[in-house]
Write a structure and sequence with these properties.
The longest helix has 35 residues. The protein is elongated. Strands 1-2-7 form a 3-stranded mixed β-sheet, with no helix packed on it. β3 and β4 form a beta hairpin. It has 10 helices and 13 strands. The two termini are 19 Å apart. By secondary structure, it is α+β, with helices and mostly antiparallel strands.
């Protein structure tokens, strides 16, 4: 409501100033001699009536036009929201590292050994099977699930001074940063900005946010590209719980291309003690699957951290992108987004 009033005011204030000037001119004219009184009164009447007519026309035309084309407007706004959803997922990866693959409370990280971490999946988070063989996760059947939502990591609450400490603590798998690239996202935003059908249905405030987001994304992309070889530093930390499977290798003019699948895999303690009795894990969950080109497979499960020299700059660029998405969420266009690819509807 506040944004709507602000947008209307920005459109009508110049005409309102002319109207006020016409009113002042009228009160001045009625005090002048009769020979110029009539002329100034007519001028004042025009200054008052014409802007009022235009204001009424613009407000009515915008309201009726949007009402008649509501579905078209929603489609255009959702196209932009989908691009922002993709950027948000990218920001989540940068701020959560390998924890981005799990919901809050799904895993416990045993870091008692500073160089060897062990991941344990909470029993409530594991995938179980009902009598019909259908999979389900127990946590979604439990009442406490709603009670822990307030503790979930919310990247929109992060301010510029709090992003730095988050980046200092986050850890990534080599699998996550092997193909780190914002170019596709920047290109998509660029294409949407050139799409007249979509941009003609954005108001001035929404267009401003989109342009700001494109600029912020380009800056972050350029920074990552420029510092690609030293932005992330490889550590000696080893994490037990992740597994990688490679398949479908192909050679192309650009190099070797492979399909890589990342799993969370939990071995049965009995199998650990009696090696050879069974090679099947007690629990396994596919986390992600993607195509990676020209990668050293032995580094994909290595743990990386952000170079301390880039904490401030990297954090500021991420914050700038998040501020644009936050501004978009506060408009009527960003309230709800429909992701057609995954069949998901929810808040941005």
């Amino acid at each position: 409501m506040k944004d709507s009033i602000k947008r209307i005011w920005l459109k009508i204030w110049p005409k309102s100033v002319v109207t006020v000037f016409g009113v002042l001119l009228y009160f001045l004219a009625v005090r002048l001699p009769e020979d110029i009184k009539g002329l100034l009164v007519n001028v004042a009447a025009s200054l008052i009536s014409i802007p009022v007519i235009f204001i009424a026309y613009e407000l009515w035309n915008e309201k009726s036009h949007r009402a008649l084309n509501e579905r078209v407007y929603r489609y255009a706004e959702n196209e932009m929201s989908q691009a922002m959803l993709e950027i948000r997922k990218y920001m989540e990866m940068l701020l959560e590292g390998y924890c981005v693959y799990f919901d809050y409370g799904d895993i416990i990280i045993d870091d008692s050994n500073p160089e060897n971490y062990i991941l344990h999946m909470n029993d409530e988070a594991k995938i179980l099977y009902d009598e019909d063989g259908e999979p389900y996760q127990l946590k979604y059947q439990l009442e406490y699930c709603d009670e822990v939502k307030h503790d979930t990591f919310d990247l929109y609450e992060l301010e510029k001074d709090s992003v730095g400490p988050v980046i200092a603590d986050v850890q990534y798998l080599g699998y996550q940063i092997a193909d780190i690239d914002l170019e596709d996202i920047v290109d998509r935003l660029d294409e949407l900005l050139k799409h007249s059908f979509i941009m003609e249905r954005m108001d001035d405030e929404e267009s401003s946010i989109i342009i700001h987001l494109l600029e912020a994304s380009k800056m972050l992309h350029s920074f990552v590209e420029h510092h690609k070889h030293d932005l992330f530093l490889r550590t000696n930390i080893k994490i037990k719980g992740f597994a990688l499977q490679a398949s479908e290798y192909q050679d192309s003019p650009m190099g070797r291309v492979g399909m890589y699948s990342l799993y969370y895999r939990e071995e049965d303690e009995v199998n650990e003690q009696t090696k050879g009795t069974s090679k099947d894990p007690s629990y396994e969950q596919l986390l992600d699957k993607k195509i990676i080109m020209n990668v050293q497979e032995d580094k994909l499960l290595s743990v990386y951290v952000v170079n301390p020299d880039y904490y401030i700059m990297f954090g500021d660029l991420i914050t700038e992108v998040l501020s644009c998405i936050r501004d978009w969420r506060e408009t009527s266009a960003g309230a709800v987004v429909t992701d057609y690819e995954s069949g998901w509807i929810g808040p941005l």
